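Example (one chain per record):
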Amino acid sequence: MKKIILFISFIAVMVMLAACGGTDINEKQASSKNAEKWNEIQEKGTIVAGTSGTLIAASTYDDNEELTGYDVEIMREVANRLGLDIKFEILGIDSMLPAIESGRIDVAVNDIEITDNRKEQFAFSEPYKYSYTTMVVREADNSGIKSLEDLEGKRAGGGATTIFSQIAEHFGAEVVTYGNAPNEAYLRDVHNGNTDVIVNDYYLSKFGVGAFPEFDIHLHPDLKFHPTEQAVVMDKDAETLQQKINETLSEMREDGTLSELAVKFYQEDASQKPEGEIEEIEGLDL
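Predicted structure:
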């Protein structure tokens, strides 16, 4: 009987050791996977960032045909502080997130909103921009829109997979998509009546409208809704890269770099949460 008890005890100890060993192996494998993207970037010495080049103030080309903008310059500074070169891939917003999944790019910076659904597939940095959503409408009559419910039956210009298009569709608008078209195409269509409205970020909309004073368009004077946070997007498992970017953004926030860049490109400090009451949208699955 004693031999049987000793044998059973021996087996139990071996099982526990095996379980502990398996846990250690799994943790090491997870840690290795989390660091893999960062190690790969370090070996190349270059981080590849996807952006559109078509968003006024966020990702656009200056008079010298140089890529610039708030998101672009933030990512340039992050790369510089991490001791990396940076290469930008110009992509449509519909292509950016798939390009992260395929490994074509390491990160995406294009005024991309953090949402619960996206967080299931991707990792995000801490926010570098806070904003809310508004509408570009015809100045003469606000395109017949007094509330969000008035979007029903309207034609809304937007990208096929953007949060703003989802909001427009949620309220019954027909979304007219453009691909990676410049701001002028969207705005001109509202002006000439081909579309009725553009649901979009406040800062981007403000600068888009300001760039074309000849168009009969303005920001809706009464509607502020769906507060947003924008961040760097990367692979779900790139935790080490996420940590490095977060540490750098934290430094940039503390030393005033984020605020300086925001004021430079938006003429307001978009790195801070906006003041005032902003309407939340109920029942929107983002």
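Caption: The chain has nine helices and 13 strands.
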